[in-house]
């Protein structure tokens, strides 16, 4: 049996694609290894969203071609977003690649492995995105107590800077029963925390049910008794219904945590980004969320250096952050992408200015985070154990309902006890360490 390693780059949605391919590979009589140095087949699931992500994907491909020359690797397969957009360039410039699969062709991975092991070259990239949603088996690579659950694919919002609609196609919801069945499958594997992902989770259902159905989907998921936490990522502010707020408020299993990418808040920039929302509407949504769910944790992401972003536009964003004080913030420098309206706009901002603005925004947000985290000192909070820290056997990484995996601060707990990933604890916060909180075990819950 040949050994196969999958390297998954990019976002949690890409990770789900990698886990689906691994599900097929496991059923396909291959040995799954996470040591690509020893693998006979290396599969790279790429990201093509912005410049830095593309660079990381290309560097990883080039690094793996080395293993084809010096190592065990017989076959190198490259899949996903970068392929969907640049298959011609990849084929021409990196001939060591044996197979290229697009974002609609993950389900053809076994055929691609068998053909390339047979020394055939394979290219499967559907230019046209299918309406069909492929229900594939799943092999989890996240820690076994939490898993991402994709509820839809593609996007119709067409923000002027974004290549996702071109790479992933139009918005396609998964039938609700398929999502519920997969959630039941995940909890049968021991998953406690289910994290809903899509390009835009808030529009779930508009295509196949002709109405927004995220609220009722959440209520159905809450009926699964083994589910402990349900977390919502990638909410688009324009489609945040009162009904959805009500369900998040009333259902104890739903984390009082919202990931709400806003990208900017200056009205002229929002207009040219094609976000179809104003700063006033954003502020009233945030006020409504906080009025209805006072303990809500709001995360957002912003782009700095959008074409034509003046100092005044940028300061408008900083003033908003100072005033609204979001709990979690990520930010990126604008990436000029070809085939996007923004990519053709005049007044592109210099990289130097972008970096200065990014640092200024993150410095401001860091002070806001410290201010908020200081209020936790002396408090007891319920946390879920994620696992042991890489560099210290007595340091455990935990999260409360207020932190998503990989992207948010964590709660660090020092103990010589052997904790179990997925275990719930009550922890007393004692002090801060950079972005993270430090706590001591108050009692073990499960
Ligand atoms: S909502 Fe906008 S930024 Fe997000 S995936 Fe869709 S087009 Fe891209």
Distinctive features:
6-stranded parallel sheet; pyruvate-formate lyase- activating enzyme; alpha/beta; 24% strand; OB fold (Dihydrolipoamide Acetyltransferase, E2P); 3 domains; Rossmann fold
Summarize the structure in words.
With 446 residues, the chain is of the alpha/beta class. It folds into three domains: 3-124, Methylthiotransferase, N-terminal domain (Rossmann fold), CATH 3.40.50; 146-374, Alpha-Beta Horseshoe (pyruvate-formate lyase- activating enzyme); 380-444, Nucleic acid-binding proteins (OB fold (Dihydrolipoamide Acetyltransferase, E2P), Beta Barrel). Helix content is 34%, strand content 24%. It has twelve helices and 19 strands. It has helices at 12-27, 51-70, 81-93, 109-117, 164-168, 176-188, 214-222, 242-250, 267-273, 279-292, 311-324, 351-374, and strands at 3-8, 31-32, 41-46, 75-80, 99-101, 122-124, 146-150, 152-153, 172-173, 193-197, 229-232, 254-259, 297-304, 328-333, 380-389, 392-399, 411-414, 424-433, 436-444. It has a six-stranded parallel sheet, sandwiched between helices. It has a six-stranded parallel sheet with strand order 7-10-11-12-13-14. Strand 13, helix 11 and strand 14 (328-333) form a beta-alpha-beta unit. Helix 7 packs parallel to helix 8 (242-250). The longest helix has 24 residues, at 351-374. The radius of gyration is 22 Å and the shape is globular.
């Amino acid at each position: 049996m040949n050994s196969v390693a999958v390297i998954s780059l990019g976002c949690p949605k890409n990770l789900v694609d990698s886990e689906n391919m691994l599900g097929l590979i496991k059923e396909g009589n291959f040995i799954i290894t996470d040591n690509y140095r020893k693998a006979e087949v290396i599969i790279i699931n790429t990201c093509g969203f912005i410049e830095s992500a593309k660079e990381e994907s290309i560097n990883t491909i080039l690094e793996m071609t080395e293993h084809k020359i010096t190592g065990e690797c017989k076959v190198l397969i490259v899949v996903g977003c970068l392929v969907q957009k640049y298959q011609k360039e990849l084929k021409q410039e990196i001939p060591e690649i044996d197979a290229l699969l697009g974002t609609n062709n993950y389900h053809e991975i076994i055929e691609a492995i068998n053909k390339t092991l047979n020394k055939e070259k394979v290219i499967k990239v559907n230019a046209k995105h299918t309406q069909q949603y492929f229900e594939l088996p799943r092999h989890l690579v996240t820690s076994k107590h939490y898993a991402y659950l994709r509820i839809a694919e593609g996007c119709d919002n067409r923000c002027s800077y974004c290549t996702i609609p071109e790479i992933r196609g139009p918005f396609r919801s998964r039938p609700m029963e398929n999502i519920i069945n997969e959630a039941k499958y995940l909890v049968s594997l021991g998953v406690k925390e289910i994290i809903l992902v899509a390009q835009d989770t808030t529009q779930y259902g508009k295509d196949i049910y002709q109405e927004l159905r995220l609220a009722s989907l959440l209520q159905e998921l809450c009926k699964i008794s083994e589910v402990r936490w349900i977390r919502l990522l990638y909410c688009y502010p324009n489609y945040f219904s009162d009904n959805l707020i009500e369900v998040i408020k009333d259902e104890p299993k739903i984390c009082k945590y919202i990931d709400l990418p806003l990208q900017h808040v200056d009205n002229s920039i929002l207009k040219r980004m094609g976000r179809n929302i104003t700063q006033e509407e954003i502020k009233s949504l945030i006020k409504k969320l906080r009025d209805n769910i006072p303990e809500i944790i709001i995360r957002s992401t912003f782009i700095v250096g959008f074409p034509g972003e003046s100092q005044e536009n940028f300061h408008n964003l900083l003033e908003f952050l100072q005033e609204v004080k979001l709990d979690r913030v990520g930010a990126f420098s604008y990436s000029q992408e070809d085939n996007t309206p923004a990519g053709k706009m005049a007044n592109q901002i210099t990289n130097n200015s972008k970096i200065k603005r990014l640092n200024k925004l993150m410095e401001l947000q860091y002070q806001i985070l410290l201010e908020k985290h200081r209020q936790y000192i002396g408090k007891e909070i319920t946390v879920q154990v994620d696992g042991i820290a890489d560099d210290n056997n007595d340091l455990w990484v935990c999260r409360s309902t207020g932190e998503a995996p990989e992207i948010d601060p964590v709660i660090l707990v020092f103990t010589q006890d052997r904790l179990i990933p997925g275990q719930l604890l009550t922890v007393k916060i004692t002090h801060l360490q950079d972005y993270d909180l430090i706590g001591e075990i108050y009692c073990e819950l499960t």
